[in-house]
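User
Take a look at the entry that follows and flag anything odd:
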Amino acid sequence: MISRLAGDSTWARYSLAWSGIQALVIVALESVIFKLHATEARNIKLVVPAALVVLQSKNIHDIPNPTQVIQSARVLSVYHVLFIVAQLFQLILLCDAMFNKNTIQIIAIVAFNCAMVAYAGVQIKQATDILVETPNDSLSNTILDIFKATPNPTIHHASLPYEIAVICFMVIFASGFAIIAYKLYKEFGWSIYKKIGADLAMRDMYKVYQIFIMIVKFDIFFQLGFSAQFLSVVVLQAESPESSTYNLSDEEMRRILIFHLIMSTGASIILPILAWWGLKRESKIAMYCFNAGGFATLVYNIIKLNQVFNSPDRFTGANKFLTFFLIVNLILGMVTIYLAWVCMKNFNNGLNAHIGKVSGTNIYPMESVNGSGKRWSIE
């Protein structure tokens, strides 16, 4: 499998090994963090009522909503799952980039790794806000006071050493992959040049195609990331209706879930399939349907972003990252629609033959943009 993806390239083999080791190490560490946070979230749920009684007995009036504290602690687990999925996602992206010799996607993986380094630091802040002792009397402080009476006190959240380890390892992995990516960029650039020649029009078409396919893959990841966070909040509200200020009925909650699942399935599964089919068959109808679905997804994301801004209490523990994912989805969505239109303009100009020539999956001769029948090769 590795030899098929990497071929004779030493740097390609290094990249696959490096990315695989990164996935194994970070997933293992993040799994431990997930387990520890899940345990602490359960502890918080158990001791919040007692902590609330203690604070009320001290005549402390500025008491956080206990149900919001519980929800914040439980929502936290979703982000660890997303971080684990992100590691597998970058490995899959790299395998795909090796197979298709997609240098643009390799550069995108470098940026994605840098974003994960940033998030590795953010997750410490997330846990600290809920699980670390505060200087004054507060609900979280009282919870920790109660924890001190247990055989295994958690004055600071127990996952802190593992979170620091994740940051250190991610810096190492991201830096190492950036070096490998530079080597691959030079290697793949020359390989593609030898296969397609110096025709600028064809190279530009292929470049747009590569960027479009890459953006669609990131669309899937960020759309699913938003969906996981949104569903976690909705499910928690359904389990603890007293924590919601909206008191949605079962029928309203069911309607929200069904509509969201339809939109999420369409954006994450149906639209990518339409894009792939439309490009493979050069079907303008499929691409028109893809753009129509893309516009519908944009509208849905705008509606949800408006809800997060206008009703922050409804999304306690998730509003910041819901906002981030929704904004990224909106940006990616607009870029995707534009690139889909550009790709559609390039239909019937030899794009399919070009893709097959570079990937090695098409046995037909390469034709130029003007249909002269010339093979684009300098060999």
Observations:
- Residues 1-197 form one domain.
